[in-house]
Fold:
Amino acid sequence: QQPVQSPQAVILREGEDAVINCSSSKALYSVHWYRQKHGEAPVFLMILLKGGEQKGHEKISASFNEKKQQSSLYLTASQLSYSGTYFCGTESTTSYDKVIFGPGTSLSVIP
Amino acid sequence: NAGVTQTPKFQVLKTGQSMTLQCAQDMNHNSMYWYRQDPGMGLRLIYYSASEGTTDKGEVPNGYNVSRLNKREFSLRLESAAPSQTSVYFCASRNRGSSTDTQYFGPGTRLTVL
Structure:
């Protein structure tokens, strides 16, 4: 079953922060985060695995709450280059390797 | 190291024609995937392969067949194309189970069925 993402869309000014949420009705083994710009292929950001901790770089990080079957992507001090559509993909503990993506969150960063 | 390659990049078919989309990866990944993305929509899983010799249905397998020819190659076949199959098709591969678990996408094949 497809994960749910929120919000559907967000507009930020440069330097502002954003949080994108992803939730599933199934017990999860992993959560994947991608960014896609118009006309291009999705680009890998990070994978969070069951039993792992919060991951990421200085300005883009993510958390994974296994009990709640939720993940959040944190974008700090946004830059114009952060604009795009963000997708979460989930892999359940009952269907290993089967990665299903959510509908996406459109993020626009304006000057 | 080319990553994930897909051929062709663009294709126009008439309803009822058949074709095979090719995908290859040179990263020695075990897992490979086919997704489709309709305009303004998300990625929907068509088929996936956890290892050479195995394939499994995804969310939208009807109208498609796949072959995991070897570890490197994973092809997607449309036997009788329909306008509803107009989409961008992405192949992906993943080194699942490794300490650097990552899923990489190919550049996509843009298919139009008239």
